[in-house]
Specification:
Elements (H helix, E strand, L loop, with lengths): L1 H22 L7 H6 L6 H64 L6 H8 L6 H33 L3 H48 L3 H15 L5 H17 L4 H8 L4 H10 L1 H18 L10 H8 L3 H38 L5 H22 L7 H25 L5 H20 L9 H19 L6 H15 L2
Length: about 500
């Protein structure tokens, strides 16, 4: 009964997502529609989809992991990181969103990060486009593959099928609506998936509390009260605060947010999105931490996937089916954003380097084909089921944050940044992240993105200061024009 309920719920979810993709097929017939939704999003669509694509999967796989495995200290770490993501999202909309929306339209109407950087620095050699596209491809594959792994682990444990079968099912479910609907489908399914997840986790604490005995309830209340005392452990507070500051500013470099910013209808919508964006993120973070603390009172399961542990703690068949569907939706919303991001880069940035006369329709076809190929490539990478999803997701975030946060922020706010400095910064952030995958930083309490972002920023400014080739007049004029537009309401 339980198994078939989960399968039915998943089929309904998949059909709903596929229908969304088909519904937006016509709107995605042009390249501009496929990768930027014709710059038509309202504040609600932009803010809600950014919450879903960035926060939902991360919350149930990382923040819940901290709260469950780390106890009181882990829950406090989850609160700090959750607060960092909440503030980081707000600051991204505030300091990156509006200026980027104006700059990207003024600068050759660019809609992908590599093409924006190329246009911003007037790079006639396409060096920065190739370097940034490579970094996006690398870290998107890493991030997306472990999202696929998490989906397959959860579905396999829930319906008791083999991992490879579960992986194939989840892969096909994501691929179908992306191929048809492109960025339109990705964003609107993200909105749907994000709020399904939010509604379900809103009721989960009540369900879990009802299923605890009196002793377990007292233990939970004790841990919860200790968690709220963030200043009790001074050392833990300092470590969390240090890492959280870098995580907060690391949000500036997330390409998933970039694609939402440039797809907004106008800068007024971004101003409204800035006000709305922290609320679903904050609610999600609080609920996920509470659920993680609840799970500590249930029998221990042999899994490092917090989503699998959560489903193992639920005994009611209907509630379990609903929770599995919500968790799958949350994780899929993160993976589909990565896939459409990579496909957009292939169709808009990489393919034209080899075929400069490619028409709009041809680029859309290439982007759709890239979606299929990349999805199955990520599926193949994800065939290894015994991986530490938590560590890999941190590494993926570290790559985006260190490669793009410094260069994107300073290229928007400083006219002094040079092309060589931007390229050097992206390469430094990428290489330092990859090196720390294999050679851990000796100071274990420092998260890898802190080290990599510091190195990337230092290189950016050192090269800028010593680079004799100063920005061209066209770059300076364009920068001044952006400043003038930003002063207008």
């Amino acid at each position: 009964m339980e198994k078939w309920l989960i399968i039915i719920f998943f089929i309904v979810l998949s059909l709903l997502l596929a229908a969304t993709g088909v519904a937006y097929r016509k709107k995605s017939s042009t390249l501009f529609g496929f990768i930027a939704a014709d710059r038509s999003f309202s504040f609600f669509t932009g803010a809600s989809s950014s919450y879903s694509s960035v926060i939902c999967g991360y919350a149930c796989l990382v923040l819940m992991y901290f709260a469950y495995f780390g106890g009181t200290d882990g829950a406090q770490t989850a609160i700090f990181y959750g607060a960092a993501l909440t503030i980081g999202m707000f600051l991204s909309w505030r300091f990156i969103g509006r200026r980027l929306r104006v700059y990207s339209e003024l600068s050759s109407n660019t809609v992908t990060l590599p093409s924006f950087l190329e246009s911003r620095f007037k790079d006639k050699t396409s060096t920065i486009k190739i370097v940034s596209s490579s970094a996006i491809g690398l870290f998107s594959c890493v991030y997306c593959s472990f999202m696929f792994t998490a989906c397959a682990q959860l579905f396999s444990a829930a319906v008791r099928c083999s991992y490879s079968v579960a992986l194939l099912i989840c892969t096909v479910a994501v691929m179908i609506y992306l191929v048809f609907g492109g960025f339109f489908a990705s964003v609107f399914t993200d909105v749907l998936q994000g709020f399904i997840f939010l509604i379900v986790i809103f009721f989960l604490p009540v369900y879990l509390f009802d299923n605890l005995d009196a002793g377990s309830r007292l233990l939970f209340e004790n841990e919860f009260l200790q968690t709220l005392n963030l200043f009790k452990n001074g050392e833990n507070f300092g470590i969390n605060a240090f890492n959280s500051v870098f995580m907060m500013f690391g949000c500036f470099g997330l390409p998933m947010l970039f694609s939402r910013f440039v797809a907004m209808k106008d800068k007024k919508q971004i101003k409204r999105a800035k006000r709305f964006s922290p609320f679903p993120v904050a609610v999600c973070v609080i609920l996920v931490v509470v659920i993680g603390l609840f799970l500590r009172q249930f029998p221990v399961m042999e899994s490092k996937n917090a989503a699998v542990i959560l489903c193992g703690a639920i005994t009611d068949p209907f509630m379990k089916a609903l929770t599995v569907s919500a968790l799958l939706a949350a994780i899929m919303s993160a993976s589909d954003s990565m896939l459409i991001l990579m496909a957009s880069v292939v169709g808009n940035d990489i393919y034209p380097l080899f075929r400069k006369k490619a028409g709009d329709e041809e680029k859309v076809t290439v982007a759709r084909a890239a979606t299929v190929v990349l999805t199955f490539c990520v599926c193949l990478i994800s065939l290894e089921s015994e991986v530490d999803i938590f560590s890999r997701l941190i590494q993926g975030f570290s790559g985006f944050a260190s490669a793009f946060a410094p260069v994107l922020f300073f290229s928007l706010y400083s006219r002094r940044i040079t092309l060589r400095a931007a390229v050097a910064s992206i390469i430094t952030g990428t290489l330092s992240t990859v090196i720390l995958w294999f050679v851990p930083f000796p100071v274990t309490w420092i998260m890898p993105f802190c080290v990599c972002m510091i190195l990337s920023t230092i290189v950016l400014w050192l090269v800028t200061l010593f680079d004799r080739k100063r920005p061209e007049k066209d770059i300076l004029n364009e920068f001044s024009r952006v400043n003038e537009i930003m002063k207008l309401r």
